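Section 3.1: Structural characterization of target chains.
Under the original work plan, the team committed to producing a structural model for every single-chain target entering the pipeline before any wet-lab resources were allocated. The record below documents one such target. The sequence was received from the expression subgroup and is listed exactly as submitted; it comprises 114 residues.
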Amino acid sequence: MSHDDATPQTPDQLAAFMEGLTFAPPPAPQDEQALLDSLPAAGSSVMVVRSLRLPIELDQAVASAAQAGGVPKTAWIRQAIEMALAVQADDDQPISRAEALRALTLLRPARHVA
């Protein structure tokens, strides 16, 4: 394991480091209220940030699909994950290929207005 030269390695170095710390003053009351007002509302959904490694080709395909759908890449990826989870849900009721084809034949083709 490597160590950063700035990382304290001994108790004396740690004490010197701690002595050198400075803290910003707390915000003024009006600034504090502005900061609090910028937070999400109580009870709103929490979004978790995930780091994801993708091959460049897959990332480009996601970018193209997201652009075609008119959504940001993160929204497109989130929707794809939601669809995959829905397919794997315990209450999912798979149907046969014949039933799927029968249902598809009942659909009318979409008419595109130019």
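The chain has five helices and no strands.
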